[in-house]
Amino acid sequence: MRVALFVTCVNDTLFPGTGRAVVTLLERLGLKVDFPSDQTCCGQPQFNTGYRRLAEPMLRRYASVFARYDHIVVPSGSCAAMVRDNYPRIAARALAEGRGEGFVEAADDMSARTYELTEFLVDVLGVTDVGAYFPHTVTYHPTCHGLRLLGLGERPRLLLEQVRGLELAELPAAEECCGFGGTFAVKNPAVSAAMGEDKARHVESTGVEAVCTVDNSCQLHIGGTLSRRGSPVVPVHLAEILASTEDSPHVLSGAAR
Asked: In whole numbers, what is the pLDDT of the chain averaged over residues?
């Protein structure tokens, strides 16, 4: 099985530890993970702000870089959803406008081989117990793209429930957006901040040590809000929890990292 890591821009720039955690986790499960260095942005910022033709080169680049891999693993619900849900839309429009030679086939191929991390673990590898150890109280925030576009459902929770030492607390209003929404936070900062405050209050009400997400972008927004509130709750990506073991534990440190 040839597996590649698509690390995403936010992870690479702000949360490189998440990418390292994915590699650590998958290698522990017996896989060899490649990191193609020519990978770039998936094109989500361009697509979401209306510059959809500018996302087309990103699709072509993605298809070229990851062509030889059986599975592409993404530690981000939003970027996985971009490839799975929006690449076929981009390709169909390009074809309709006379730019689609080979485009539709490439988009469909990439869509079929791209998996968000929890999908890959549960659906492809067929595991929920990955041998993790994380002795902390945690609540889980299901991010919008993972919840609504990918339909991750119970996969993240199934994985968290098998982590030794972890106590999982229910998050009130869990399905409400945290307010980040990519460029939404830039265009509507007041609304975004208010939504973040609501989410932070719900997180704090659980009394946990950490809030877990499958998207570093939401982790960034929630973590920043918690930090400004002086909260001790630490945001952490699911991959970091799953990569943590007794011999090599993930150490919680600081509400905004």
From this structure: 93
Q: Which string of b and e fits 79-90 if b means at least 16 CB within 10 Å?
A: bbbbbbebbbeb
CA 199 to chain centre: 18
DSSP assignment of 56-103, as one string? Answer: HHHHHHHHHHTTT-SEEEES-HHHHHIIIIIHHHHHHHHHHTT--TTH
Helix (H, G, I), strand (E, B) or coil at 135: coil
b/e per residue 33-53 (b: at least 16 CB within 10 A): beebeebebbbbbbbbeeebe
**Is 70 exceeded by the pLDDT of residue 38?**
yes
Res 134 pLDDT > 50 = yes
Given a cut of 70, is residue 255 above it in pLDDT? no
Helix, strand counts (H, E) of the chain? 14, 8
* Alpha-carbon gap, residue 65 to 61, rounded angstroms: 6
**Helix orientation angle between 103-113 and 87-96, rounded to the nearest 10 degrees:** 170
What does the alpha-carbon distance between residue 100 and residue 213 come to, in Å, rounded to a whole number?
36
